[in-house]
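Dear colleagues,

As part of the handover before I leave the project, I'm documenting each prediction I ran so the next person doesn't have to rerun anything. This entry is a single chain, and its sequence is reproduced below.
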Amino acid sequence: MRLLSGEAYRRLVQDTRVLEHDRFGDKVLRRRDDRVIKLFRTKRLLSLSLIYPYSLRFSRNARKLNRLGVPSVEVEQLFYCASIRRHGVVYPLLPGETLGCLLEGRPNRDDLMQQLARFIAELHQKKIYFRSLHLGNILQLPDGRLGLIDVADLRFSLLPLTLWQRRRNFRHLLRRAEHRALFEQFGIERFIEHYLDAADVPQQKKAGFQTLIMG
């Protein structure tokens, strides 16, 4: 991990465009060379993130996703800047559009919704638990595949995902009102049926599984 002075950080972010920010400051910036700078704030004085920063989790998770055949970003640099008290990563922009943007602008969403259901089933079959799963964190790449961004809050399990974890993923997916409306237009139960068809769930357990997710 590279230690950046305040001056080096200012040079790094010179002429960037802010893509995301909150009340604490900038979170994601885009450089003119189409590289992305993502910043991570330590939220508590005593935190595991001081020892194992989110920037390192992000980098390792992205690398492992790519190894498992799930497209994600490829981190080029990790850094810490003491003057702004932020860890960060730098990576080339992953080309594509978020599913949130694509679904909102598409009158016929059936094919993309079915692809999304299969993609989530694939993640779960690979024992990937992406706590922050939502339509803004999933991209459709130019080649048509789906990929993940903002992957710091992601875990690789040794055991199959529990029903609670799967249910939480669906709850998070439907949490934003504008995204839930898209699923309601397609049919939430219909979406879960496509997921179950692609997931390795025994036929006799599918009805109970859907009830649990919807409950």
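Residues 110-125 form the longest helix (16 residues). The chain has a mean pLDDT of 89.

All the best with the project,
I.
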